[in-house]
Each structure stands twice: as structure tokens, then as C-alpha cells.
Amino acid sequence: MVSEYIKKLLKDKARLKKWKRITLALSCVVVFCVVYALTLPAITLEGKTICGMEEHTHTEECYQDDELVCGKEEHQHTEDCYEKEEEQPVEEENIQQDTTEPSDEVETVAEPELKDAEQTTDEQEEPKTNLDFVLNDHPDNIESTILYVKNNDQWAEISNGESPNNTSLKILVKFQKIHTQEFLEKCNCKFTYNLPNFLSFVDITAPMMDKDTNEKIGEINASNGKVVVTYFEGYLQKLLEGSGAETSTFSGEFYVEGKIDLSSLDPNGQLDTNINGIKLNYGTDFLERFGDISVNKICSKDGEDKNDDYIKYSITVTAGSNGAKNIIVVDRFTQSKDLVSYIGIDKTETILKDNAVKPNPFETIENNTSFVHGKVYLGVEKNDKTNPIPDVNAAEELNPGSLVWNIGDMASNEKRVLTYYVKLADNKALNGNTITNEAHVYSKTNQNIVYDRDKSKANFAPQIKYSDLMKKSVDGDIKKDANGNYLIPYKLEFGLHKDGSNYSLKNFELFDDLNYAGDNIKTDSRALKYISYNKDSVKFYKKANYIKFKYYL
Fold it and tell me: What is the spatial distance between Cα 72 and Cα 81, in angstroms, rounded to a whole number?
């Protein structure tokens, strides 16, 4: 349990402190022995003399009237004046290492007295020990660990041997009986739980809530394969005040949602979770079914493209960290399909290139050193969910058909982009009719089972904007000719807004009607027999330049 673990650490710390005291005492003994050895020559000089003379130095008291009166000879002892002692054999000390375990008596060796400042420091409260409390190492504090899979957007507890239909996974951990005071003082109010390697998840930070009061009592952080649960110190103090320091414990739970890391599966798609003996079976085709793969489709008609009849489409397919197998993209128009036709692609399967002259298709590849390009062809559109991939070399007429892009296997994090063009139809009313295109990415197994993995849609709305640029006016004065006819000069103007139009106008026809029946605008019927067009006066100009044209009355 946590309390036994902490007590063991404290006992080891006390033993280390006692050994430090022993080391200090032994150091003092060594210093004493060294000092003693250095004083031995001086002690030797105090031995018995053999010269028979007294050591004497003349002073003023030895003289009287400049005559020596002490009767002594000046002499200083040297080594020759002392009797030399015979060397005695020195008994060898027993220096065998003490192999006995230190006893309580040894650990109580006296240590030198500390100064007042040192004694004060030693008497102060020892700092808190921040232990790294890993919940996995304390099974007694784990009440249960439960795994869940998602079925129909609902989490359901996993059964052993289950074959999930997706890779979503949830792990719920319930913990119990964590000693409050020790957790507060020794563990810095937090513990860690190491998540299993097979769980892949996005880093999260979430509040820890009290179920009874709905009060925030801490925080949960999940990242780098582990969960760190941190409690607020104030909440733990309340627990101590309520239950007492000796008996207070707390419990709780947390969960993490993520996905199975497919690299953790064996070649047969099996996974041993090592949790409650649970094993999962994702099947041998797990990469085709569950490998991360995405598709994104866009269309554009910008810049110089506005002046032609083509729409540019790009399909981007991206594989996840585990790669992907047998990838096929089917692209088809789902709305206003009669307004477009594929360009540069036919019923014959063709290997793509990394660049091509517009409007031919091409493919770019990233994060794959092999650079083996995919293939593309047109087939008959199919609505078969079991086998939605059109056949190559179809005999039927295509209007406009479906584009099939056969990529094959993809490496880890590989990205491929297919760029192709479609042509807007002639003699069709295009303005304001939205053209919808959809791309599906499929993975196909060796048993010809097809999985629909992802899809993306793109819309293009042809627009011609000419409001306030179509005008009719009387251009000049009304004149009378020699036959008495009045000539009225009319001027018709028509133009397109550059920013509001996204395709070129073809087969343009302009009608002028003297007897138009709509919008309550019509000529008085009594005057019609007196009015006629002067066909010789009709002229057509483009940007002030006269051009030839066809007209009829």
C-alpha cells in the first residue's frame, strides 16, 4: 500500500543519516591519529642523555667584571647526546573489514556537537518529499479498469474475443483508498497513470469534478501516453478536517477516449489488451477497414481560367501513420451532369504523369520514395453499394460517366493529388445552375470486399453578371428623310462584369422586339403598320471597333 511504501522510504532515509554520523566520527579518529604521529619526533627528544653535560647558555648573570664566574661550559644537546633505544616490533593491527550488519548501538555513535545555527536547522521541519506516485504500481489502489467500444454512437463494455466494427476505444479507471495526508504531504497532490501503448488519443485537459457537489476539485491532463490527475490542496485539507489525518482516504475515477493504434495488432488483427484478460479481433483486413485515409476535393476557375470553358478539379487523398492498402477513388457528378464532360480521360486505363499540359490530368505524390503513379479511366456510373467501382473499358455510352483513380497501396502519411479538367457544355443554359461533384475513396481487399472510407463534395455555380450593363437608348436626334419618314436612332449596349462572371459567354444572341408582350411593355397596335426596321442602319461594335455579325429581321 502507499503507506507501507512511504514508511520504507523514511526508514531508508533515517539509516542513511546514521551512517553519515558514523563517517563523521571515524573522520575525527583519523585526524587524531595523524596529529599524534606528527608529534613523535618531539617526544623522542625528551629521552635520557649520555653526554654527561648539562645544557647551558651563558647569560649576563654568568659574568662579573667581564670574567666568567658560573663555572659551567656552554652546551646544547644534539641527537648524539641521547641514548638510542632498540626498535621494538610493532604489533600488526587487525584491519579486516567488519562484515557484521550495523546494529542499533553502532548507529548511535556520538557525533560532535553542532553549533547553535546548525542545531536550529536540524530541528526545523524537514521539507516535503515529492514522490512520483504511479497508480499502476499500486494495484491495491485500483478498484477496476474497464474497456469500452463504440456501437451506434454509444459506448458499450467490451467482451473478451469481441470483433469491433470500428477502432474507437474508451478506458475507464476507478481508484480507491488513497491515504489523504500522505498523498498531500509526499506526492504533491497528484498521481500518474500510464495508459496502454495500443491507445492513441489527442492530448486533453479536463476538470476533475466532485460527483456529489459538482464542484471542481482538480484537473486531469492526458498526453504522451499517460494521465496526470492533480487534486486541489484545499479539497484535500477539507477531507482531513472531516475524517482525520490517520483514517482519511479518497477514491474517484477518470476515463480517456481514443482509437486503437493499428501498429499494435499482430498480422491476424489480434490484440491482447492485458486488461482483465480481454483480447480483441479486428480481422486480417484491418488496414483496409480501419487504416486512416481521407479525401478532399476542390474546384476552381480563377485568373486566366475564367476566359475558357474548363473547370479545374483537385482530389487530395492522404494516408495515416499506418499507411493504406488497395486505395481506389471514384469521382462522379451528382447534379447538372449534362452541363459538363471529362477532358483528357477515356475508357482505357492510363498511367498518370507528375505533370501534363492543360487540360490533361496529372498526379503529384508526397512522402513516398517509390513514386509509382496511379492509373485513371472513365467508366459507367454505378449505384451498387456492394461493388461501387465501375469496370474499365465499358461498352456503354458515358454521359459523362464516372472517373476511376486507382492508387493502390499508400505509405505512411503519403499524400496524392489528382488534378483534372472538365469542359462546360455548349448550347446549354449555364448561368446559375450549380454543378455538384462528389469523390469517394474506397479500399478493396484481396477477397474483393469494398469498404467506403471517406468522401468529399465540391460545387461550382456558373455565373454571368450583366446587370446595369444592358442598356437601350435613343442615340442622337430624330430626323426626317426625303420621303417624309422619321428616322429614330436606337442604341443597344451589353457587357459582362469581370469580377462577377466566371465563364466566357458563347453563342450570344440579342433580340429587339417592337411588339414585346411581356412586362406590359408593348407598342400601340395602331402604330405597328407605320413602323419598320431599317436593316441597312444596323451595325455591331466591340469596344468601339466595328465587327461583322449576323442578323435577321
Answer: 17
Instruction: Quote the CA–CA distance of 367 and 320 in Å, as a whole number.
Output: 11
**Are β-strands 375-379 and 168-179 bridged in parallel, bridged antiparallel, or unpaired?**
unpaired
Residue 288 CB burial class (10 angstroms; 0-12, 13-18, ≥19): buried
pLDDT, one tens digit per residue, over 191-246 is: 999 999 999 988 999 999 998 899 999 999 999 999 999 999 999 999 998 877 78
Q: Which of 335, 292, 297, 320 is nearest to 418 (CA)?
A: 297
Q: Which helix (H) or strand (E) holds 542?
A: strand 541-542
Q: What average pLDDT does the segment 391-401 reach?
A: 90
Q: Report the C-alpha dihedral over residues 74, 80, 81, 86, rounded to 10 degrees.
A: 170
> CB within 8 A of 460, min separation 6: which ones?
299, 301, 311, 434, 435, 437
Residue 44 has pLDDT above 70, yes or no: no
Q: Is 408 left (phi over 0), alpha (psi -120 to 50) or beta?
A: left
Round to whole Å and give the CA distance between 8 and 41.
53
CA distance 313 to 436: 12
CA distance 256 to 388: 37
Could you give the 3-state DSSP secondary structure of residue 140?
A: helix
d(CA 371, CA 415): 11
Q: Which residues, 6 or more positions from 461, have their beta carbon under 8 angstroms from its beta carbon? A: 432, 433, 434, 435
Task: Identify the CA nearest to 229 among candidates 189, 258, 257.
Answer: 189
CA angle, corner 529, sides to 523 and 531, nearest 5?
A: 65
**What are the backbone dihedrals phi and psi of residue 278, each rounded to the nearest 5 degrees, phi first?**
-80, 130
Report which of 292, 316, 296, 329 is spatially closest to residue 365, judged by C-alpha positions: 316
Looking at the DSSP assignment, which residues form a beta bridge with residue 67?
64
User: Using CA atoms in the order 34, 40, 43, 45, what is the torsion angle rounded to 10 degrees?
Assistant: -150
Nearest to 147 by CA among 131, 137, 162: 162
Q: Are strands 471-474 and 490-493 parallel, antiparallel or unpaired?
A: antiparallel
Q: What does the block give as the cell for 294?
A: 481521407
pTM for the whole thing?
0.64
